[in-house]
Design goal:
Helix content is 27%, strand content 23%. A hairpin with a 5-residue loop joins strand 15 and strand 16. The protein has 408 residues and is α+β, with helices and mostly antiparallel strands. The chain contains ten helices and 20 strands. The mean pLDDT is 94. Helix 2 packs across helix 9. Strands 1, 2, 8, 9, 10, 11, 19 and 20 form an eight-stranded mixed β-sheet that branches. The chain is globular.
Length: 408
């Protein structure tokens, strides 16, 4: 039976929406309904790399990201469902002197936390990642605590845990609008009828800005295409080898469970998208590839992983993660539409950030602050900047193209 009332309606069944639903239910909020136009985790979520880091090059981001990795380390306890979180660690590599400060900032953060991390030589790095070939490097930081997981399994775990706590999940449900009275949310309109509600959590991924404009709320976050590929099994690849991140070329590589490598990166022709240009039934899986992006990505990766030169590509991944002008997410209640909480701007890191985002959503709805924010996460923080589509899209493409280097 389709519900007709709720205390909270969550729009979006990706990792951010399902995390919000779970955290709300765990905090004792009753009568929660989650709606999604398709199956759960059918947007950008299943195409993500699923990498989980917990460090920031700014001190304010540490509690936020530490909460996230601790949640994943205790995922079964938190949700009731296990996931295969492979804490193989990571290597953060600076090949040139200009990027050493980036690596050093992470090392200092680890030291303050009291966790283990060390600068290692190229020979040691190759012992950890046998497919890595480096003649030299200015800095290589080994971070043993980081890891990766299957993105769809995360959303499924959140959703299953939320369902067990009473959350009503309604898929194949299209949201057509929101009813409001006196500047406050009163209902969510869908193709299956209206749901009266006090709160709405808008976590619709690439479509969040378009949804918000209906209400109308201005959201300065735009989807930007991100691409990666997976190779056929390689004899040199060990399933226990760490994630490798090369700061200079902004590429990452990790072992894939089938025995190949997953390779992705930033700055290779970043392109933003206006979802109004796509039909209502458009699916992320139908996103056209950027062949030049893939060619440049592979060439950059081959310089440090020469085994890729002869590797066969068996899967291409691409999605539309949302990006903001300052590289921090938006998690905030609208001042013009009370009861509407907007969640967007995952910066190609929605999986890793999802636990803390769900907790902050819960804090907003419960009127608490149990987790320190990594920065100003408000909707209005950009003021009159980026008021035109052209300036906003130009800025988020710049941000996406410099995520490993730090946004200026």
């Amino acid at each position: 039976m389709f519900p007709r009332e709720a205390q909270v309606v969550v729009i979006g069944g990706g990792v951010l929406g399902t995390s919000a639903a779970l955290h709300l239910a765990k905090a004792g909020v009753k009568n929660i309904v989650l709606v999604d136009r398709g199956p759960l985790a059918s947007g950008t979520t299943p195409f993500a790399a699923g990498q989980v880091g917990y460090l920031s090059n700014t001190p304010d981001g540490v509690p936020f990201l530490t909460y996230c990795i601790e949640f994943f380390e205790n995922f079964e306890k938190e949700t009731g469902y296990p996931i295969d979180f492979r804490q193989n660690g990571s290597l953060r590599i600076a090949l040139q002197e200009q990027h050493v400060a980036n690596v050093e900032s992470y090392r200092k953060t680890v030291k303050k936390l009291g966790d283990h991390a060390e600068l290692i030589a190229p020979a040691q790095a190759k012992e950890l990642a046998p497919t890595l070939e480096l003649d030299s490097a200015e800095a290589i930081l080994h971070l043993p605590r980081e890891g990766f997981l299957k993105p769809r399994a995360v959303a499924a775990g959140y959703a299953s845990g939320a369902r067990d706590l009473g959350v009503d999940i309604q898929i194949h449900t299209h949201v057509t609008g929101v009813g409001a009275e006196d500047g406050r949310v009163r209902s969510v309109e869908t193709n299956r009828g209206a749901i009266e509600t006090e709160w709405v959590v808008l976590a619709a991924g690439a479509w969040t800005r378009q949804f918000a404009q209906i209400f109308p709320i201005e959201v300065k976050s735009i989807p930007v295409r991100h691409q990666a590929f997976v190779t056929a099994p390689l004899s040199e690849v060990s399933l226990s080898q760490p994630i490798v991140r090369v700061v200079d070329s902004q590429i990452y590589m990790r072992p894939e469970l089938g025995g190949g490598l997953l390779v992705g990166g930033y700055g290779f022709r970043p392109t933003s998208f206006d979802m109004d240009e796509y039909p209502p039934d458009f699916e992320i899986a139908a996103l056209e590839p950027d062949r030049i992006y893939y060619e440049r990505l592979r060439a950059a990766a081959e310089s440090v992983f020469p085994c890729l030169k002869s590797a066969s590509i068996i899967q291409e991944r691409r999605g539309l993660p949302t990006v903001t002008p300052d590289a921090f997410p938006i998690v905030d209640e609208s001042s013009s539409m009370k009861g509407m909480v907007v969640v967007t701007g995952c910066q190609v890191g929605g999986i890793a950030r999802s636990p803390a985002v769900g907790r902050i959503v819960t804090d907003i709805i419960k009127g608490e602050r149990t987790l320190e924010h990594p920065a100003d996460l408000s909707l209005e923080r950009f003021g009159d900047e980026y008021n035109s589509d052209a300036s906003l899209r130009s800025r988020v493409e710049h941000v996406d193209g410099h995520l490993y280097w730090g946004v200026q």
